Amino acid sequence: MHRYRSHTCAELRQTDVGRTVRLSGWVHRVRDHGGLLFIDLRDHYGITQIVADPDSPSFGVAETVRGEWVIRVDGDVKARTEETINPNLPTGEVEVFAREIEVLSQASELPLPVFGEPDYPEDIRLKYRFLDLRRETLHRNIVARTRIISEMRKRMEEVGFTEFSTPILTASSPEGARDFLVPSRLHEGKFYALPQAPQIYKQLIMVSGFDRYFQIAPCFRDEDPRADRLPGEFYQLDLEMSFIEQEDVLQTMEPVMRGIFEAFADDKPVTQKLPRIPYDEAMRKYGTDKPDLRNPSVIEEVSEHFRDSGFKVFANILASDPKAQVWAIPAKTGGSRAFCDRMNSWAQGEGQPGLGYIFWRKEGDALEGAGPIAKNIGSERTEAIRTQLALEDGDACFFVAGDPKKFAAFAGAARTRAGEELDLVDRNRFELCWVVDFPFYEWNEDEKRVDFGHNPFTMPQGGLEALENEDPLTIKAYQYDLVCNGFEIASGGIRNHLPDVMVKAFAIVGFDRETLEERFGGLYRAFQYGAPPHGGMAAGIDRIVMLLVGAKNLREVTMFPMNQQAQDLLMGAPSDATPQQLRELHLRLAPRKP
Q: What's the CA gap between 532 and 543, in Å, rounded?
């Protein structure tokens, strides 16, 4: 018999009754039932119940073991009595009566519990991550992550993609976040950068004559963490295709991404035909380019109902600014003053002056609107709003006014807040959609100039003619995002592969040809020697796993994450460099001035 085990702790079944087996694992918990000791023995695969009775030679050792000790058990498989069967365990119909127990390793007093799923301080959990990873939910999430990545690889290969690896040490590039810089020992004063994404390399792979590339790519960005983005590194399913248009990418990747969700959705419905929503429409209907389509509420413009009305706040805004609009955020079942007041208080907490509302209720046989706005605009306009939004008794509606570019994000947040509070969101499904036709440029208010809206290497719709003849802020890009349940899970575009278009596109944001060649010389040179039309996308693996396992935070699907301050508490990173290391890298630390 093997030194440590003949079976895992998840294998034994009724068919094994009568066999002598050997198991090894961690002591999950110990229970004393009137002289009989029950030990739940856990390994990577599952749990088996061990029984030690006072007549067994193993009983003396069994009395000493504690939680998280590592032990080896030899014993006989027996069937449990009907009343003691545990239907929640795959091994719940059997137990092992111990003949011999060997302690392989003892555990000190635990700094955090492993049994159960307690809410424990995050810094303790990250410092002792090796213990945290033993917890059932977290352990299961990490295993699910590996299976999801394996499924991605399989499906990409099935549609003709080949996996290639791109460099980790590279040059700095503007991907929208700070680079992690690595000082060069051999080239004094110069630095490598860790890649924010394999963007340029994957385009060069297409120029090199390969056709369909993908990789599970590590990416590095020195940016502030949040719930759906970790500091430091993250992973993405990166891909690129040659001789394609936007529709080719969407039609190729839609069944791949849908299939991945279906494989791990645990029978939850997954969108079958993904809608294509133009960016402007998404902002107009949902107040965001990452709409959660599980929320049935759709924002509508109701400006005409307020123009020249008795509600002077909105009427004056509409009269003084031709760009101004009034948007209505319907809230089915939200028709109570208490709920509307809570939403108003929430808006004030978001830095807004408030959130106007109307709610409808029956007064005798009549359906009437209530609240200050209804009183000011009158019953006829109030009824017109209700009719437009198809609202009923017990429903409410909230209003925002001004320049939509300035309030759209707040309107979207209010839609989300109302949907969550009123439980309008169907949490037992995965709603996916494509958001397309993103703006190619945007106005940088801080620097008072035009800037790239998204990826600077995307092809503008209309090509060179549009860049030369149209207002830059009206030009759309062949840029698309894949959204699921309010999260952007993938982003991509058709690339600009023509040198003249590239030069003009960068000139509009203030990059002359010399700067372009200096910053992106490798790609610019490659385009001089025959570049195929190409495009692709990158899907965020961490976010996809988070959605599929139902986690609330990316740290719940990442094996060794950093904390909110971008510190690895387990390994002690970042750490001080020794004087010798600094000398070899030609660096000297400059103390920060107080």
A: 31
| Tokens 């005409």 sit on residue | 304
Angle at 73 (CA atoms; ends 68, 75), nearest 5 degrees: 145
Asked whether the predicted pLDDT for residue 173 surpasses 80, the reply is: no
Contact 421, 339 (CB under 8 A): yes
Q: How far apart are CA 156 and CA 259, in angstroms?
A: 11
Cβ 369 vs Cβ 290: under 8 Å:
no
Whole-number pLDDT of residue 578: 94
Region 481-509: what's the mean pLDDT? 95
DSSP letter for each residue of 26-88: EEEEEEEETTEEEEEEE-SS-EEEEEE-TTSTTHHHHTT--TT-EEEEEEEEEEPPGGG--TT
Residues in the chain: 594
According to the model, what pLDDT value does residue 230 have?
80
Backbone angles phi, psi at 414, to 5 degrees: -65, -40
**Cα torsion angle, 557, 237, 458, 159, sign:** negative
pLDDT above 90 coverage of the chain, percent: 87
Strand ranges (E), 117-231:
162-163, 181-183, 191-193, 212-221
Any long-range contacts for 377-381 (C-beta under 8 Å, 24+ apart)? 377/305, 377/306, 377/309, 377/310, 377/311, 378/309, 378/310, 381/305, 381/306, 381/309
Task: State which amino acid sits at residue 54.
Answer: P
pLDDT digits (tens, 9 = 90+) for 99-133: 999 999 999 999 999 988 878 899 999 999 999 99
Beta carbons of 18 and 54 less than 8 angstroms apart: no
